[in-house]
């Protein structure tokens, strides 16, 4: 520091090499600079004056602020040679091409993320990227992430450390690996991912997959690129996902995105935005395409799938209010008009009588009787309903802002079982939510016993930033208490599931075969209409309508399986014969006709 001071004093004693007399004031001279074609000799002064005028005219008539706001449609006539579209890209389309670079996907979390992976891959495939299942040969690694719980995010952080180490070890002769985070975690933790940890090159939120080619191009230039903007309109309705379901027997079709329920524990409205529904026409087109490809089961997807409400066409708009389950309410005003979930379910189920239709994940508030009666009447709509309770205590449900009481939930369960005999029920439960007492926990255990679920998803509460609970409630249940209560819930659930499944012993179930069992190559596995896993020996069985001939059983086949034993997790049996969904529907209708409701209608399309 002292040395620097001495140098500074010495420099002050030096006389400047050039001095400007005080009577001369500095004048800034601005000279217009033009494109190279104006540098030619022979350019007249009139032409020099005309060119800036033309440039000013183009600027004044070019894109305005509105052109850069998503969702605003502005029609412009640009003063340029040739036609220009409304969309102005910063990069040419050639630069956004994949040029056969290989992409590797890893998908975490819910089935919506599986569908998001299919959408992202469809977009990149259209730009010339190739897909690989070998991580070592990938040029781009994209993780489709989940933020619903802390454990899910920690899994991604650990994986990013591994991928970063692999990226650094990569030979300099190879193309540099780019790492991207897609989905909910990209939106929720954008600052930490980009600035603090600096482990990723690309971030794309759930509504920004169309921008992936541009983001990857920017990353190729050595910069980090992100787009985590949420949209009020994006449904990817015009993008046909590239389905990669096992053996091609089953597929997921997204029908809506986002959630308006604002449950106090849930991060989904903040990572996936507000509810918006995909136009019914594009959904039906995708289901027809899957039917033509031989798909035997389609699951309709959405964060709140049964709140579907298509308002894309004027004919769907009316003053009718959305009907809720009896005793349920919402934090938002009743919605008007639109094609409802029951209408969509009706149209989808009529496309292919031999295609099973499922849907997930619903909210209990959106099960009016018209939906339940349709499930009961239409044989290819699976008689399996997910009714996420979250808690058995009315006080906890109020703190969760679920919009119902314990009593209203149990009334709905009774109504479902009355309208849909033999229905299979599944649920979600959270142990140790804010303020949960021991009595609240005991009420949850009694609810599990009273309902009798055969499938469940149970977790200890994990507080998420941005949620209502984070701002207004205290995460006051100790971790060890949460874990103990969770284990007790799991224990009671397994007892009840084993009891429910044991009632199926001796029955014959129609099973859609998925493939070989993971535990034994000598066994096959599949799922019943109620979504229970069935394991049975791999052996030839009689062909449909031909008892004397036998045929092997393959993935995608419907087979009748006699159930011989059961546990809380699965059923075991032996295949009896090949079958079809339509044939089984007719057989069941004849058997159940006497016991059916008088108001029940013929169900075979």
UniProtKB/TrEMBL annotation:
Alphabetized InterPro entries for the sequence: Elp3/MiaA/NifB-like_rSAM, Methylthiotransferase, Methylthiotransferase_CS, Methylthiotransferase_N, Methylthiotransferase_N_sf, MiaB_methiolase, rSAM, rSAM_horseshoe
A family per Pfam: TRAM
Radical SAM core domain segment(s): 245-499
Keywords (A to Z) from UniProt: 4Fe-4S, Iron, Iron-sulfur, Metal-binding, S-adenosyl-L-methionine
Keyword Zinc: no
EC number assigned by the record: 2.8.4.3
Catalytic activity: N(6)-dimethylallyladenosine(37) in tRNA + (sulfur carrier)-SH + AH2 + 2 S-adenosyl-L-methionine = 2-methylsulfanyl-N(6)-dimethylallyladenosine(37) in tRNA + (sulfur carrier)-H + 5'-deoxyadenosine + L-methionine + A + S-adenosyl-L-homocysteine + 2 H(+)
Start and end residues of each MTTase N-terminal domain: 101-221
Record domain TRAM: where: 502-577
A biological-process GO annotation: regulation of protein metabolic process
Reported cofactor(s): [4Fe-4S] cluster
One Gene Ontology cellular component annotation held by this UniProt entry: mitochondrion
Top-level division of the source organism's lineage: Eukaryota
MF annotations from Gene Ontology: 4 iron, 4 sulfur cluster binding; metal ion binding; tRNA-2-methylthio-N(6)-dimethylallyladenosine(37) synthase activity
Protein family membership: Belongs to the methylthiotransferase family. MiaB subfamily.
Record protein name field: Mitochondrial tRNA methylthiotransferase CDK5RAP1
Organism annotation: Sparus aurata
Lineage: Eukaryota, Metazoa, Chordata, Craniata, Vertebrata
